[in-house]
Amino acid sequence: MEIKTGDIVRSEYGRDKQRYFYAVKAEGEFVMIADGMVRKIDDPKKKKLKHVVFIARPDTRVREKLISSELIYDAEIRKSLRQLGFCDDYDGYGKAEDN
């Protein structure tokens, strides 16, 4: 399935392997991804499409904001991924995240 802005993807290669992300921007053979923890919305990771797997196209406010280029916060991304069951309560460094 084609990956579009606002989709949830899973990284299959690299240090972030098996982590879930929102596709912040998809163009050509690359996708910019952010999870609001290790990869912030201000500094998304650029990955080749062949290194990520499409997981879901959720009907969330985060997806709507990404598509319409509205201001979005890392906390919104973290909360959305957690509510959808794609994230636990730990950040990428093994520390419990504050609410």
Please tag this protein with its features.
99 residues; alpha+beta; SH3 type barrels; 5-stranded antiparallel β-sheet; 2 helices; 5 strands; 18% helix; globular
Overview of this structure, please?
The protein is an alpha+beta fold and 99 residues long. It has helices at residues 61-68, 74-83; strands at 8-11, 20-27, 30-34, 45-48, 52-56. The protein has one domain: SH3 type barrels. A five-stranded antiparallel sheet has the order 4-3-2-1-5. The mean pLDDT is 89.
Q: What does this entry show, briefly?
A:
The protein has 99 residues and is α+β, with helices and mostly antiparallel strands.
Low-confidence stretches: none
Domain module tally: 1
Number of helices: 2
Give the beta-strand count.
Answer: 5
Helix content: 10-25%
- The first-level CATH class is given as Mainly Beta
CATH architecture tag? Roll
Mean of residue pLDDT values: 89
Large-scale geometry: globular
- Biggest beta-sheet profile: 5 strands, antiparallel
Q: Structural class, from secondary structure content?
A: alpha+beta
User: Could you say what the CATH topology is called?
Assistant: SH3 type barrels
Q: Strand-residue fraction? A: 25-35%
Alpha-carbon distance between the two ends:
34 Å
Strand order of the largest sheet: 4-3-2-1-5
